[in-house]
Structures are given as C-alpha cells and as structure tokens.
Amino acid sequence: MLALTADRLYVFSGQPRGTGWKIGDQLGAWSRDDLRIATERGKVSTKITIDVVSTGEHYELEATRALQRSGFTDVFLAELTDSGAR
Question: Using CA atoms, how far apart are residues 63 and 25, in angstroms rounded to an integer?
C-alpha cells in the first residue's frame, strides 16, 4: 500500500478485508526528491518502478487496472510521477 504526501512516499503492508483494506506496518518512507519513479501502462496492470537514488534500492510493483474505481489509480500514479507537483 502506497501513501503520498507533498514531500514523502510511504509504503505499508496491507491485506484486503471485505470491501476495504487493513493497513499494517510501515515498510518504508522516502523523500520524494530522492526517488526516480517510472510507470509503464499495460492492458491489465501498470508497472511501477521506484528507484531510491541515495541508496540504490530498486522496487518493481504492479497496480491492477481491473479493480480501479473512479480513475483513482491513474490520478494517484500521475501525482506519484509528477516531480513538478511539489
């Protein structure tokens, strides 16, 4: 589970619960200025690549498009990759 503020990206564990999610432990947090994020849209999902410049950490995630409600995922990913929005 990703959470985004003006300055930071947070990652939490999470599990589906009924029609929602149960958010668990915080797994990471980084300054947005320290991240290089790219997305690659596919037919079923969008690949998200997150690189932490200062540490060399590299993460690859997938955001499914099948369960997207009201375009939230597209809006979130646009904000996530928009370095000019800060």
Answer: 20
The residue among 46, 51, 37 whose CA lies nearest residue 73 is 46
Q: Which of 58, 50, 55 is nearest to 81 (CA)?
A: 50
Per DSSP, the residues of 38-70 read EEEE-SSEEEEEEEETTT--EEEEEEESTT--T
Residue ranges covered by each domain of the chain: 2-85
Distances (CA, A) of 52 to 10, 21, 34, 65, 71: 13, 27, 6, 25, 27
Phi and psi at residue 77, to the nearest 5°: -65, -35
Other CB atoms closer than 10 Å to residue 61's CB: what's the count? 13
The pTM assigned to this predicted structure is 0.79
The pLDDT value recorded for residue 68 is 62
